Amino acid sequence: EKYGKLLEDAVTRSDVNYLIGEMIAELNASHTYRGGGSIETADREPSGCLGVDFVEKNGHYKIDKIITGAKWDNKIRSPFNRSGVEVEEGDYILAINGVELSEYNTPWKALQGLNEKTVEITYNDKPELDGAEKTVIKTLNIRDEIRLRHLNWMEWNRQYVDEKSDGKIGYIYVRSTGVDAQNELVRQFQAQFKKQALIIDERFNSGGQIPDRFIELLNREPLSYWAVRDGKDWQWPPVAHFGPKTMLINGWSGSGGDAFPYYFRKAGLGKLIGMRTWGGLIGISGAPSLIDNGVVTAPSFRMYSTEGKWFAEGHGVEPDIRVVDDPEKLAEGQDPQLDKAIQVLLEELEKQGKIKPERPEYEER
Q1: Residue 32 to residue 25: CA distance in whole angstroms
Q2: Is 255 considered catalytic here?
């Protein structure tokens, strides 16, 4: 009745979606979404991306940084970080397809409509065309540019943790609980499980599926060791981590990103560090479309514990150690939550005795 009266003022289907959203927000329940329908759209000409950070100097655009991504990922690279391309950080991009960038107030205008297109770049180590060179590159789409920068952030964190812990602590980032992150977790785990301790970073985790397999991988316990004639002894299971762990969480971790730290704590894998999570474990498993192909989701299941208590819907999972994720510090390259996790794990490693027993003396047989 309350929101229905406002329908008279709705001019477009988007206005109706807004009203439906305001109405279902009254439920204070997660996974209540709306969208679609007979909405008018316009053709778009997405800009191509270059995988670089520009700085503007006297009307010219200089490459301040070429985003390198991660060496362990070969799918996404900056166009300027590929074999045969000699453009370097500090060079000026003077023209794209022969059109000088000085004609625009942002270099991205010159790349409009050139998403994933092959373009000619005119560049020089000084802001002038005299002596400039040309090269041909293929631009990135915006999704790949975002992924490239995400990989760069992940790799920076991994190297930072490795340096600050003198190689003792590994770092794994889990961006969701979907199939993509299951693959990502296994891939990163393969390279980190031999570290003495692990940081599992699930901040900004966008959820997906129920992450029981994630916990199974992280919760493998030692069953035996094998003495090898030549080389180091084997642990069994061979792909498993037996040392201390922590998990980083924040308010942008939700849905499966709520369940992951909840299960992490229940399994006794380590301390949760950061801020409480989003608080959305009323889930959806499909919703019929409306007659104009719009959609309104109806949550169909909710989690409760093995003790028979509801998950704290709308509140989330509380950290064991509260550390604010200050966006200003993050923008400056500081990460108080990551620093705290390193500190906690180094202290736990000091207290912890040896996990692997000494190889016994050979028997007289």
Answers
A1: 8
A2: yes
Q: Are 55 and 34 in contact (CB under 8 A)?
A: no
Round to whole Å and give the CA distance between 36 and 28.
Answer: 22
Of the candidates 150, 206, 313, 348, the residue annotated as catalytic is 313
* Chain segment 283-312, per-residue pLDDT in tens: 888 888 899 999 999 888 999 999 999 999
| Rounded CA separation 313/308 (Å) | 15
| SS3 call for 181 | helix
310 contacts 29 by C-beta, under 8 angstroms: no
325-348 pLDDT, tens digit each: 988 998 898 999 999 999 999 999
In three-state secondary structure terms, 52 is strand
User: How much of the chain is helix, strand and coil, in % rounded to 5?
Assistant: 30, 20, 50
Strand partners of residue 247: 200, 272
Question: For residue 218, which of 255, 256, 170 has the smallest C-alpha distance?
Answer: 170
Q: Are 145 and 123 in contact (CB under 8 A)?
A: no
- Percentage of the residues of the chain whose pLDDT score is greater than 70: 100
Quick one: how far is CA 34 from the chain centroid?
A: 25
Look up residue 113 and give its two tokens.
């409509």
Which is nearest to 316 in space by CA: 205, 218, 215, 174?
205
- Length in residues, the chain: 365
Q: Is 228 helix (H, G, I), strand (E, B) or coil?
A: coil
Encoded tokens for 198:
């692990």
Q: Which of the following is catalytic: 31, 47, 155, 165?
A: 31
Q: Which of 30, 47, 78, 255 is catalytic?
A: 255
**CA–CA dist 75, 229 (Å, integer):** 40
